[in-house]
Amino acid sequence: MSEYNNRRKLRNYLINPGFQLRLALVHTLFVVVVVVVLVAILLSPLYYEIQTTNELWSQYVLAQFMLNLMDRVAVVILVIIIISAIYQIIFSHRLCGPFVNMNHTFDCLSEGDLTRKVFLRRKDFLKKEAESINSMVDALNERVCKLKKIQTELSSIALQLPEGKLEDGLRALIQQNKAFLDEWKVDSDDPETNKCV
Fold it and tell me: What's the CA dihedral at 107, 110, 114, 118 to 10 degrees?
C-alpha cells in the first residue's frame, strides 16, 4: 500500500468530536476566565474612582469612559474566544489524527495485513511513536516473508518424500502452516503467486 492510500483527509478536523470539542470548550473557558480576571484587574481602579468621587460630572465622565472601554473589551474577548476555540480544534486535530491513523494500522495488523503503515502529516504530533510502529511493522513484515520462504522450501522438500503415514502427516502439517502463513499480507508478496520474492 502506498502513502497516498493511507493519508488522512485534510478537511476532517473533527476526527474525534467528543474529545476535541470538550478540549476546545475547557481551553476556551480557561481563556475566558483569564481574560475576565485580567479585565477586572485593569478596570478595578477606574471603578473604584467612580465609587469614591463625589463630583457628579466626574462620575458621569468616568462611567461613560468605562462603558466605552467595556464595549471594546467585549469585542476583544469575543475575538479571543473564537481564535482560541479554532486553535484548540486545530491543535487537537494534530493530536487525534495520529491516534486514529495508528488505530487503523493496528486494525490492519490484527487482520494480518503487514502493508499498512502509519503516515503522519508534517505538523502532526507523535512522529516518534509512528516511526516505532512502522519499524515494528517492517520487522514483522520481514519475519513473515522469511517464514513464507522457508514454508515454500519445506513444501518442495515434502513433495519429494515417499508415500507413508508419517510423510502424509508431515505434508498435512506443512499445508496447515502454509494456509496460516498465506493469511498474512506482506509488502514483498507477489500478487500472482502470493509468495515472497
Answer: 30
